[in-house]
Every structure is written in C-alpha cells, then in structure tokens.
Amino acid sequence: MKREGNKIRAWLVERRISVSDVARSAGIARSMVSETIHGRRNNRRALRALVAVGCPEKLLALPEDMQGEQAA
User: Fold this and answer.
1) How far is it, in rounded angstroms, from Cα 12 to Cα 64?
2) Is residue 20, in this structure, part of any structural domain at all?
3) Which is more confidently placed, 63 or 11?
4) Percent of the chain surpassing pLDDT 90
5) Which one of 4, 8, 51, 67 is least enclosed by Cβ atoms within 10 Å?
6) What pTM was estimated for this model as a whole?
7) Looking at the domain assignment, is residue 67 inside a domain?
8) Long-range contacts made by residues 33-40, C-beta under 8 angstroms, separation at least 24?
9) Which residues make Cβ contacts (< 8 Å) with residue 52, sequence separation at least 6?
10) Domain of 33, in residue numbers
C-alpha cells in the first residue's frame, strides 16, 4: 500500500496538529516529516511520532518491520 500524504495531512489538520509539532516530538527536521508523510522517505522516527499522536496506521502504510509496533 502506498502512503497517502494528503489524507495524513488532512487527518493532522482536523486535529490541529502541525508537521512542526510532529517534527519537534520526533527530534527531526520538519522537512523529514513532510517527506515521510508524502512517501518520499520512510523515516522511522517520523512514523513513530505520527503513530504516537494517534495517526491511523492504515494511513501511514507502515513498513513491515513497524506493523503492530506500540508507540514508544
């Protein structure tokens, strides 16, 4: 399954969570989070931070090694 960045961004906007908020909590650059959201990267820290804020795993199309992983 391909990551659907627009749906992830819509989910974040609906909950008033910014990409910068996610980046801060993950300790990485905003651009890395954005690229991960849109499927150009597969940064595990960004994905874990998105899971931690409640983003549905089905939207994230998590890599196989992260599926079912609990948010730290």
Assistant:
1) 23
2) yes
3) 11
4) 75
5) 67
6) 0.88
7) no
8) 37/3, 37/5, 37/8, 37/9, 38/3, 38/5, 39/2, 39/3, 39/5
9) 25, 71, 72
10) 5-61
| Number of structural domains found in the chain | 1
Does some domain include residue 40?
A: yes
Q: How far is CA 5 from CA 29, 34, 40, 58, 72, in A?
A: 17, 8, 10, 12, 23
Integer Cα distance of 58 and 72 in angstroms: 18
Torsion of CA 11, 5, 35, 13, to 10 degrees: -20
- Kindly compute the dihedral angle of the four CA atoms of residues 37, 42, 44, 47, in this order, to the nearest 10 degrees: 20
CATH number at residue 19: 1.10.260
> Which amino acid is located at 5 in the chain?
G
